[in-house]
Amino acid sequence: MNPARCILLVGGIALAILGMCHGIWYAVSAEHQALDRIGGSLASAFTHAADRDPAQASTSLVAYREAKYVYERQVDAHGHWIGLAMLLVLLGIAFERVAFGEKEKLALTIGLLTGAVVFPLSVLLQTFSHGPFPRALSIGSSALMIATLAITAFGFATDRPSS
Questions:
Q1: What is the pLDDT of residue 37?
Q2: 74 CB-side CA count, 13 A
Q3: Counting Cβ atoms within 10 Å, is residue 1 exposed (0-12), middle (13-18) or buried (19+)?
Q4: Angstrom distance (rounded) from CA 8 to CA 117
Q5: pLDDT value at position 163?
Q6: Phi, psi for 100 (deg, rounded to 5)
Q7: Distance (Å, whole) CA 93 – CA 9
Q8: d(Cα 54, Cα 62) in Å, to the nearest integer?
Q9: End-to-end Cα spacing for the chain
Q10: Cβ distance 21 to 85 under 8 Å?
């Protein structure tokens, strides 16, 4: 098995395991508390609004928005890791049909695996920091994934030289 294919298959399986472990950890240790914060802050916002206390209602809505933001990022990271892992495995199965040399395939593979690991990680980092670094990392890693997938699609569409 060539190195590019091996990296895609092993990396995809490892990434799927990472995504599943993250999902299990989140479901067991953090999701119920997050859902409680989301529901509690929203209920509190409605209660304060009914009591005609707009300042407290606004504070509760801010707490709701923050709790929902963190919850969505956790779930998104889990889903993206597993989805990108399955994409890597599928590409690994058919990667011999890409019409590039071994060095180019290896470079594409490294780009694909790097993007598939870093993009969901950057989404998780956004739960700790709303600053520019996690967002820039997210944009850069998603751009890397898009570019390497586009080049790979071009490689699939191009006729391979006969050996």
A1: 92
A2: 22
A3: exposed
A4: 12
A5: 53
A6: -125, 165
A7: 7
A8: 12
A9: 17
A10: no
3-state secondary structure the chain: CCHHHHHHHHHHHHHHHHHHHHHHHHHHHCHHHHHHHHHHHHHHHHHHHHCCCHHHHHHHHHHHHHHHHHHHHHHHHHHHHHHHHHHHHHHHHHHHHCCCCHHHHHHHHHHHHHHHHHHHHHHHHCCCCCCHHHHHHHHHHHHHHHHHHHHHHHHHHCCCCCC
Distance of CA 1 to the CA centre of its chain: 28
In this prediction, residue 162 carries a pLDDT of: 58
Looking up tokens 């919850």, which residue turns up? 71
Helix axes 102-125, 132-157, angle to 10 degrees: 150
Which tokens hold the place of 65?
Answer: 């928005």
Per-residue confidence in pLDDT tens, the chain, 163 aa: 799 999 999 999 999 999 999 999 999 998 889 899 999 999 999 999 999 999 999 999 999 999 999 999 999 999 999 999 999 999 999 999 999 999 999 999 999 999 999 999 999 999 898 889 999 999 999 999 999 999 999 999 987 665 5
